[in-house]
Design brief:
Layout: E1 6-14, E2 17-24, E3 33-41, H1 44-51, E4 61-62, E5 66-73, E6 85-88, H2 98-101, E7 117-118, E8 121-123, E9 131-134, E10 139-141, H3 148-151, H4 154-164, E11 174-178, H5 182-193, E12 197-201, H6 205-213, E13 219-221, H7 228-235, E14 241-246, H8 251-260, E15 261-269, H9 283-289, E16 292-295, H10 301-318, E17 322-327, H11 331-336, E18 346-350
Parallel strand pairs: 4-8, 11-12, 11-14, 12-13, 14-15, 15-16, 17-18
Antiparallel strand pairs: 1-2, 3-5, 3-9, 3-18, 5-6, 6-10, 7-8
Helix pairs in contact: 4-5, 4-10, 7-8
Length: 353
């Protein structure tokens, strides 16, 4: 076979077992969009697949769902043309179930049950391969002035847009974010876009410096040294903040978030916990202060579209969130390092290297 029919892809074969393989390359399909992947972000999800903490993932698989790409071929009625820069929505959505028809397609009943395969490999996004063929509805054109390592942040930014949709946050409100990793940092970026005053709590001093100096967080608190609850009240004239986003999967953080919340506030449990955890709460505090506790999972297709539209406005600040770009061959070594700490935020795989 010629090089036009093969591609490189990083294949997960089990816990701590991944390697770059030569696999069949998708071909143009009259009903689908063929894209050449340029950049793919490494999410905590893929790091958990590698470590074995993410259970029930079929093997062997090609993962990678934070994808920027270039259109190679597309149906003429899509408005997409070869050479277009695009962001990708690589979650399966059936479009027919109870949740999909209500616009809640992030909860599609077939989200994890569809056995999607390519060349014998399970595809969980597929962005760690050089080409992907997808339905046109999964592809969103992006301003070509936005660098592709920033375009790769469309999916996580979409998740944060979905997170904000669970709240009543509006212009000039106060917001608390617990956890200053990439997802917490993206919450800071969006809150600042709303004109909010933002408090960030995290025990990592490097991360606190990052969100303060690079992203404009108004107040940073190390919970091992100071009191985030007192800081949240000081930021909001004693009321408690209008929303608290918990992006650290720690039960104590969720319990503390309820104490940081003001009346009519929303506490959003953004992070998952591994293993699962239970929390205790003050029933009367939630009752009398009308505090809403909500969860958020992934993003809808429309959230990704919104994120793609926002990229030109946010590209300069988002630049701070891409800490490193690596070639595909270095992906196994990067995954072995585990979840980033300190000032390191998103690591992006450059599939053009």
């Amino acid at each position: 076979m010629t090089s036009q029919t093969r591609m490189r892809a990083a294949v997960f074969r089990g816990a701590r077992e991944i390697g770059v393989s030569d696999v069949a390359r998708p071909t143009a399909d009259p009903a689908k969009v063929l894209v050449r992947v340029t950049r793919t972000g490494i999410c905590t999800f893929e790091r958990r697949i590698y470590s074995g903490a993410q259970k029930h993932v079929p093997m062997p698989s090609i993962a990678g769902h934070e994808v920027a790409a270039i259109v190679e071929d597309a149906p003429s009625d899509t408005g997409l043309r070869p050479g277009d820069s695009v962001a990708m929505d690589l979650v399966y959505r059936c479009g027919r179930c109870y949740y999909c028809v209500r616009g809640q397609d992030n909860q599609c009943v077939k989200l994890y049950s569809e056995n999607l395969k390519w060349d014998g490999y399970h595809t969980i996004g597929g962005g760690f391969g050089e080409y992907i063929s997808v339905d046109p509805a999964k592809v969103f054109k992006v301003d070509p002035a936005v660098p592709h390592h920033i375009v790769a942040l469309s999916e996580p930014l979409g998740c944060v847009i979905h997170s904000f949709s669970k709240t009543t946050v509006t212009l000039g409100d106060t917001v608390s974010v617990i956890g200053a990793g990439t997802m917490g940092s993206l919450h800071v970026v969006l809150a600042k876009l709303y004109g909010c005053k933002v408090l960030v709590s995290d025990p990592d001093e490097e991360r606190l410096a990052f969100v303060r100096d690079r992203l404009g967080a108004d107040v940073v608190v190390n919970p091992t040294k100071d009191d985030p609850v007192a800081a949240a009240k000081a930021l909001s004239d004693g009321r408690g903040t209008n929303a608290v986003f918990v992006t650290a999967g720690v039960a104590a953080a969720a319990e503390q978030a309820i104490e940081m919340a003001g009346k009519y506030s929303t506490v959003v449990l953004y992070a998952s916990t591994h293993p699962a955890a239970k929390i205790q709460l003050d029933w009367n505090r939630v009752h009398y202060n009308e505090i809403r506790i909500d969860g958020t999972e992934s993003r809808t297709r429309n959230d990704v579209r919104t994120a793609a539209e926002l990229l030109p406005k946010l590209k300069d600040v988002l630049e701070h969130l891409v800490s490193k770009q690596i070639p595909l061959d270095e992906l196994p070594e990067e995954l072995e390092r585990g979840v980033p700490t300190g000032a390191t935020q998103r690591v992006v795989v450059d599939l053009e290297r």
